[in-house]
Amino acid sequence: MADRLARPRRLSVKRVISKSTRSVAGQVLIFQVALVVLLVACGVVALILQSERDSAAEARRRSTAVAQTFAHSPGVLAALRAPDPSRILQPLTEEARRSAGVDFIVVMDTNGIRYTHPLPDRIGKQFVGEIAPSLAGEVYVESVDGPLGREVQATVPIENAGDEVVGLVSAGMKVKNVESQLNQQLPIILGAGAGALALSTGVTALVGRRLRRQTHSLAPDEMTLMYEHHDTVLHSVREGVLIVSADGRLMLANDEARRLLELPPDAEGQLVSRLPGLDPETSALLASGREATDEVHLAGERLLAVNQRPTEHRGGTKGTVVTLRDSTELQAVTGRAEVARERLGLLYDAGLHIGTTLDVLRTADELARVPIPRFADFVTVDLADTVLHGDEPAPTATDMRRAAVYGIRDDHPLSEQGRLFDYVPSTPQARGFGSGHSQLVSDLPTATGWRLQDPERAQAIIDYGIHSLITAPIQARGVVLGVASFWRGRQHEPFNEEDLSLAEELVARAAISIDNARRYTREHALAVTLQQSLLPQAVPEQNALDIAYRYLPAQAGVGGDWFDVIPMPGSRVALAVGDVVGHGLHAAATMGRLRTAVHNFSALDLPPDELLSHLDDLVGKIDQNETAETAAGVVGATCLYGIYDPVTRRYVVARAGHLVPALVHPDGSVTFPDVPAGPPLGLGGMPFQTAELCLAEGTQLVLYTDGLIEDRRRDLDVGMELLRDALTGHPGRPPEETCQDVLDSLLPGRPKDDVALLVARTRELPPDQVADWDVPPDPAAVSGMRDAVSQRLDAWGLSEFGFAMELILSELITNAIRYGAGPIHVRLIRDRALICEVADGSSTSPHLRYAATTDEGGRGLFLVSQMAERWGTRYTPQGKVIWAEQALPEVMQQPDPGPADADTPLDGGPAGP
């Protein structure tokens, strides 16, 4: 066989060339070259068509843009009203035509009579083209045969202040000029196609050359014959065959070698020194590459005769070929010492492989896998259903769930995993569960009690060949948690009393791990329940931001990472994210206290820096009140708090030891803004500072905790760059997809620390939903404001709210004039509620009081509180703002805001910002 493989290498060059067309490599090369030529030709045609379409589209867009620009140019309306429009407009159109790169700009009256034209003799004549759509106020683009030849032209209306069409403007290009642009691109396109064809053909030739070397220029029938011989060696020869490379890697193993050495399915390609279950002496021989003749080596319970020879002297690659023969004689019954050794090995493996996790089902599965096939053919583990939820079981074998089932084969008749059933009292499982003692059934076919559970399945088990059973109760700390059943078939002798003691010891070791997992499940469920009750259950309804969030607990359980979305007065929204170092109930409880404090402080409408200062004082007091028995203090609590205003698109943010947020701009770029860093909460002594950012609509705010980017295997800067890469280049991606993509990129597995991720895409409240006025400090101005507000509410279709809103504004403006200081500013916002705000330069806060019947005043704020759903005061660097909200029915609420035209002024005040 080696001679046959080496023979093609000694062929002459002429012989190789003659065989190239009939070899597999030659046929593949011809096919690939033909495919490349076809693909490149299609690409060139597609580029030509695309370029032609783009050129025509560019001509239409340029004509439309030039016509619209000239139609809205200053002075055009005045020129149309002049006695001689042509004298004024002709030089303007010619100058604009040359600078804009079009062939003509024609201004005409509503009857289509030209005022201007590149050819002066065409002035005063009828325009060639359709003008009816433009007279109706539309932009009309067409292709006509005009004075300059075949033309692409766009016609737009000229409208006066009353939206009346008083003239038309047409701009366009000659078709031959458009086609000339395409002709200029053709050499580049054809040159690129030729280059791609040459490069692709060269690469294809290199690939074919490599394939020819790998197949030794064999024809298809020769390769078929070679693979038939190869399959014969792999599957038919009853002697193990191995091929080992020069660096000690297993390159090939036939079926018999896999059986004799019990190799795993993925053994090929691995170093022989690392193959599992291989005897050290056998492994050393295979890795050495030395010659060996009938050397006897141990492989499990087999004695193998090993022969090893090098392959390089026959023209093959450097390595060795190994043959294996099973020379094991019929084994006599092993002595008691050998039995004891096997049992100790089984118990040792049980200690290593059972209880590796604190998961009940995983531990039960480990108990089912360890004894197979050395002790049993099949193992089933049944646990009380309450154990899987962390609770203690009932004293009877009812509501038992099959937690694990494993065996030497998958087609067994035993009940499947996950099945819930009740054991009848006559079964060994029920007796063992109730008494706490193991049960031995040496001869299942003759036993009757276990058949009553399921006669049909019992008969199927016997027909399958299972003949013996041991059931051992799983008990820990005096409580029986379930039952483990060991089944033997034809490959083993029936169980005996010695096997019963081994099963009891094996299960006893696993019972402690299962009980620990049960207790952990209970504690984890309590912590998760507490944390879920403390985290936000849903995002509140608001129109300022599109919100998506994720929270992932750490491997060690729940922790102290948290986030919040808090609606604020004036359609603003506060975003908060924080982290309490540690895990468990204490961290979750502390997180809940901090989140509640943030809610309470935000209700006071404090700026971010002041809110963090109050939160810092609170954490310091918590640390002082914590005793040594309960906790060591809240060390390492961080927080980032910011408020976004959709009216001004301002985002004011401050942080206390927390990571800076990421900004995904509408163009897809990502930045990390310079937000002044403050100390972690609870340290005190250092003031917090704010940063004010102006965000474009559609910007995504990405707030996160350190568990997202920090890891023991990478630095913080590396994590920040990974986050930047995951966010960059996706400007239109929804926040929900952003959350998932970021987690998939940065956290491929379960995180070792808690992760809180909050993504908010900004919106801008349309300007026509906001109105504001500057109010002079004169009581007489109140009546004018009532009229202005009434007009605004009429324009919004909210006339029915006019009386209440006029009364509220009257009281608030009067208070500002009487007790406040200038300047006085009024703002009206329509969102999910109707919001009015009165700002003045005084920092004195008004207080609600109940006036006596003899008092002449003091009832203004009381009336405001009765007429408004909510009202309050917030302080600004310039003074204060008193606000009040009126609830709107759902049908009247402002829908999700989007881009809108500028607001139109109403009588009594300027347009909104």
Describe the structure.
Residues 382-524 form the GAF domain. The chain crosses the membrane at residues 24-49. It comes from Streptomyces massasporeus. Residues 892-913 are annotated as: Disordered. This protein is an alpha+beta fold and 913 residues long. Helix content is 38%, strand content 22%. The protein is built from 22 helices and 31 strands. The chain has a six-stranded antiparallel β-sheet with strand order 12-11-10-15-14-13, sandwiched between helices. Strands 17, 18, 19, 20, 23 and 24 form a six-stranded mixed β-sheet that branches. It has a five-stranded antiparallel β-sheet with strand order 6-5-9-8-7. α12 packs antiparallel against α15, α15 packs parallel to α16 and α20 (781-795) runs antiparallel to α21 (802-819). Residues 1-17, 330-335, 627-634, 851-857 and 897-913 have low confidence and may be disordered.
Q: What overall form do the CA principal axes indicate?
A: flat
- The number of helical segments is 22
Tell me the radius of gyration. Answer: 42 Å
Strand content: 15-25%
Task: Please tell me the overall pLDDT.
Answer: 80
Contiguous uncertain segments of 5+ residues? 1-17, 330-335, 627-634, 851-857, 897-913
Structural class determined from secondary elements = alpha+beta
**How is the biggest beta sheet arranged?**
6 strands, antiparallel
Distance between the termini: 88 Å
Total number of beta strands: 31
What is the strand arrangement across the widest sheet? Answer: 12-11-10-15-14-13
Q: Give helix % range.
A: 25-40%
Indicate the topology.
Blueprint: H1 2-6, H2 13-20, H3 24-71, H4 76-81, H5 85-100, E1 104-108, H6 132-135, E2 140-146, E3 149-159, E4 165-174, H7 175-215, H8 220-236, E5 240-245, E6 250-253, H9 255-261, H10 280-288, E7 292-299, E8 302-310, E9 319-326, H11 336-353, H12 360-369, E10 378-384, E11 400-407, E12 420-421, H13 428-435, E13 439-441, H14 455-464, E14 468-476, E15 479-488, H15 497-534, E16 545-552, E17 562-567, E18 573-579, H16 585-603, H17 608-625, E19 638-645, E20 650-656, E21 662-664, E22 670-671, E23 677-678, E24 691-694, E25 700-704, H18 716-727, H19 735-746, E26 755-762, E27 770-775, H20 781-795, H21 802-819, E28 824-830, E29 833-840, H22 860-867, E30 870-876, E31 879-887
Parallel strand pairs: 20-23
Antiparallel strand pairs: 1-4, 2-3, 3-4, 5-6, 5-9, 7-8, 8-9, 10-11, 10-15, 11-12, 13-14, 14-15, 16-26, 17-18, 18-19, 19-20, 20-24, 21-22, 21-25, 25-26, 27-28, 28-29, 29-31, 30-31
